[in-house]
Amino acid sequence: LEDTIRKFGLGYASSQPAGLTQSAKDAGYNVDLLKQVRLTNDYDKDFFRERVMFSIHNLSGKPIAFAGRTLKTDKETPKYVNSPETALYIKSKILYGIFHAKRAIRSLDECILVEGYTDVISLYQNGVQNAVASSGTSLTHEQVRLVKRYTNNITFLFDGDQAGANASIRGLDIVLQSDMNASLVTLPEGEDPDSLVKKLGHEEFDKFIKENAKDFIYHKMETLLAETEKDPIKKAAAINDIIESIAKIRDSIKRSLYLKECSHAFN
């Protein structure tokens, strides 16, 4: 949709070797600055070529970096090329879509975390406007603090594969240290947020999230229990692992309740 394209600053980098660089020169832009933000390379050629472009905005809505996705299918071409870090853009301190989502996050008192740019955009188009993406990186303390400005509730939405589950568990301890409430929704096999919201629509998608959201600690307990089975050595390691996570919870009442549940689960 045209409105989405303009709102999220979507575009296309042409195949011309220096199309953007020359246009910027003609418009009076400083080439040295273009090189600093890596829109232009050291040879006065465009950094991004033949890619669908995603603008990455800061909290106030200003574009500070870009991601370019190839439409080619050959495996030698990287799927994504991203702006390198600059004085303006530090990847660990920004979440994709946070500028557009912050109002909905505050009003709904919940932030949905997804994996990619297209997930955020598709959810937004379908009425789910409180979603952001960590853009393929593990969640950082700075990103969690960014969410905490608007809500204490974060829901991780990941594809139903093991990589998605592992990524969510890696982000768990950081969320707990920030004294936030975290839950996880595992999507049906073969689905991602984009495909599921298109299939279900806004209301049914919201209903699916609410019905399938699982407390993060309980999710971790179930995951570790499934891995240990009847192996006492693995079970001991799993208990230590879960206790380390529970120890990071600042609220003493929450901590004691989780310990009670954990001791029951692990017998």
Overview of this structure, please?
This protein is of the alpha/beta class and 267 residues long. It is 48% helix and 16% strand. The protein has twelve helices and nine strands. The strands form two sheets. The chain has a five-stranded mixed beta sheet, with helices on both faces. A four-stranded antiparallel beta sheet has the order 1-2-3-4, with no helix packed on it. Helix 7 links the parallel strand 7 and strand 8. Helix 10 runs antiparallel to helix 11 and helix 11 packs antiparallel against helix 12. It is elongated.
Form type: elongated
Low-confidence stretches: none
Helical stretch tally: 12
Helix content class: 40-55%
Largest sheet: 5 strands, mixed
Q: What attributes does this structure have?
A:
single chain; 267 residues; alpha/beta; five-stranded mixed sheet; four-stranded antiparallel sheet; 12 helices; elongated
Topology:
Blueprint: H1 2-8, E1 11-13, H2 19-26, H3 31-36, E2 51-57, E3 63-70, E4 80-82, H4 98-108, E5 111-114, H5 117-125, E6 131-133, H6 141-148, E7 153-158, H7 162-177, E8 181-186, H8 193-200, H9 202-212, E9 214-215, H10 216-228, H11 232-247, H12 252-265
Parallel strand pairs: 5-6, 5-7, 7-8
Antiparallel strand pairs: 1-2, 2-3, 3-4, 8-9
